[in-house]
């Protein structure tokens, strides 16, 4: 599971024409396979007049999938996946829509067209970096509040929520997932082992 990765900040689009055929690449950021499949289904319905609507996606959980959608095996989906990998983005789904122009392009021509138009769409697309987070909760005596909050601030905690229940205080916080182990060690040191984070999500 990748903890930090680049994805698209918004939709990307590019077009090219090759010997009469028109190729339209569309790519968007997604959070999961359900969203990726939904985008593919929506575009397939939207471009019912097209000859082929070819999908591909890469997700941060390691899933990478593509279909040739009726084109010769390996001529469409595979070069699209290569374009996604080459662009270094995850949690992105893409489709390339083709309108056949009457001239066969051959396997090599299809590979260049499908991979090339998607690479073109991704080349200048705006990006953002995603850092996976986890939500933790801590319960502690009131006098340890300062030590807990210092540890939270040191590890980039956000969305901090406080609560009180009698002699005890609670604190829920969102932390970068990759720093949880280090945060646990620092928190234990700061509180003489009295406070440990409980992972909520």
How would you describe what is shown here?
- The chain contains five helices and eleven strands.
- By secondary structure, it is of the alpha+beta class.
- 32% of the residues lie in helices and 36% in strands.
- The chain has two domains: 4-129, Impact, N-terminal domain (Ribosomal Protein S5, domain 2, 2-Layer Sandwich); 132-199, Alpha-Beta Plaits, CATH 3.30.70.240.
- The longest helix is centred in the middle third of the chain and has 18 residues, at 106-123.
- The protein has helices at residues 33-46, 77-87, 106-123, 145-154, 180-190, and strands at 4-8, 12-18, 21-29, 52-58, 64-66, 92-99, 127-131, 133-141, 158-165, 168-176, 198-199.
- It has a five-stranded antiparallel beta sheet, with helices on both faces. The protein has a four-stranded antiparallel beta sheet with strand order 9-10-8-11, covered by helices on one side.
Summarize the structure.
The protein is of the alpha+beta class. It contains 5 helices and 11 strands. The protein has a 5-stranded antiparallel beta sheet, sandwiched between helices. The chain has a 4-stranded antiparallel beta sheet with strand order 9-10-8-11, covered by helices on one side.
